[in-house]
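Hello forum,

I keep getting stuck at the same step: I have a sequence, I want structure tokens, and every attempt I make locally crashes halfway through. Rather than fight my setup again tonight, could one of you with a working pipeline run this one for me? It's a single chain of 698 residues.
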Amino acid sequence: MENLNNGRKANHLINEKSPYLLQHAYNPVDWYPWGDEAFEKAKRENKAIFLSIGYSTCHWCHVMEHESFEDSSVAEIMNKYFVAIKVDREERPDIDNIYMTACQMLTGSGGWPLTIIMTPDKKPFYAGTYIPKETRYGRIGLLELLPKIENVWQNERDKINENAAQIASKLQSVSYFQGGGTVDKSIFAKGFNSLSSIFDNKNGGFGKAPKFPTSQNLLFLLRYWHSTKDAKALQMVEKTLTQMRNGGIFDQIGFGFHRYSTDNHWLLPHFEKMLYDQAMLALAYTETYQATGNELYKETAEQIFTYVLRDLTSDEGGFYSAEDADSDGEEGKFYVWSIDEINRLLNKEDAKFFIDIYNFRKNGNFTEQTKRISTETNIPHLTLSILQIAKKYGATVTDIKSRIERIRKTLFVAREKRIHPFKDDKILTDWNGLMIAALSKAGRVFDNVEYTKAAEKAADFILRNLSSGKRLLHRYRKGDAVIKGNLDDYSFFTFGLLELYETTFKPEYLRKAMQYTEIMRIHFGDNKDGGFYFTPDDGEKLLVRTKEIYDAAIPSGNSLAFYDLVKLGRITADTKYEELSSKLIKTFSANIEQNPTGVSFLLTGLQFELGKSFEIVIVGEKSSANYRQMLKTINSKYIPNKVLILIDAEKKEEITKLAPFTKSYTGMENKTIVYVCENYVCSLPVNNKENLMKLLKI
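Reply #2:
Ran it on my machine without issues. Output:
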């Protein structure tokens, strides 16, 4: 570990592939990656472990690094008294899950950077998040905290060991679920009422700042509206999606959504962009377009994909993880504008127009509460709809859209010359699964071949590069694929494969979805109590083998697994999937009843399971005009709880092996025949659009 970086020596992270770990490879702190070497050193030298967990695009992780981990005085204390371990939470969500739960137990809150002090046998006894270098504003600093912990470690070890054992025991109990109850349709109204009670009627979204997209809430509410016709449910979805699209949380110049808003009205975001947010929001906008026909939602989904395909897609087809909030040492600098810049870049009339509709102010248009962003800058955001702007300027909607797009392109080209935020170019199987699902659905809803091809290319990339034997791997970067797949990798990727099958009707994607579900059952399933563990039975032995049900920024692995099982059960008519999904619900029944909004994506699967659903089998040739018309009829309408199977001459043998019940479905020469079953009760086949619409009640 010789001098390789401006006179600094590299530490033990230098040979890692994680961008986050490599960011710390030249810290004076003697960081180790998670592994036997670090734990053996801690035991041998009788030291506690300083565990720091974060990710490469985390703003406060950068702050703590620059303030403390690059500081020689902090490094001297850490190296003397502790063994320091760095973990990328996106590479090792299994580790992060355990110690984030411990932090929440000990402090009542959590977040990143996550700071854990623990024994050499991995039992935590102190937890926190961002810790400043020096004590200020009532928050103890590392220079004061670390010597205190070392003193207790040397002089009160028995007490530490006792507390650590108690925390470890509580972590075990938190990860144990024993339900056994049932959940009925009343849970949907309970979930709706709970979301309604915290809905922000003025600004959209749920609760108070900071506000996260929580797309799974919107997907559930859409289905609730569809089944009950309760107008308020749809109003909540539309208000939220419209306000977000118009707000500063949406990158009005380069597209894509930032991670969350620091205020109630979606203006000042935390500027990092995550792949999973793009995927989940694209799903929400696509489905809402289906439900309403409002072009704004289609345009927004398309703009999300423009961003992802332009900036987050590798040449090989996989999708990168994220872009940072910071650039040139300052958060948000890449995304904000001064009025002087706009006046320099645009002609007088366009500048005046842009400054007006995007609400620029001479001294900046947001309150600089946290001193994170330079003053006199503006975040582009809309407070008027395009129709209102058109009326204000006495122009047509088409002309206004054209003018905005022309100006946007000019500003985008200028912005491209700025120092860009750091891009985390690792490719994660689970997050890619979500984007594959989003692109697949949009490909068929918008009849966009580009989206379908991108989804296929990404799925094939995962199958080629992140598949080892029959198993999935979690992370790929620069030719290096490592880390055994976790539950999210299997359930999220299966979700993507199922959506991709229903778009392409290529049986190999359905077959792979079934194979990975079987691996998930064997290696992640809890045969005794039901549900799925986050880690496989042959994975690394950690302090706890966790089982997750509550959604966070993305759905939980068990929520996606349940949805996959329901869908596979309907596609194949194999009761084993229904048995597994039923057992999963029983396992988590108490949690579902207690906090339905915490499992809102699982509720979408439960709506599929308990509500009205369709099984649609198309028999015909993909090349025929009749087939395309029938398929377009199905895909253009919002029918959330359905499965779609194609039997054509070319692939009939393959699909009937996967779904044997389809053997009995026959077609007519030169005609596309559609069989529609509703909740397992089948109608006579139809061969025209009008009769199909009647059967589907659309």
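The chain has a mean pLDDT of 94. If your local run keeps crashing, start a new thread with the error log.
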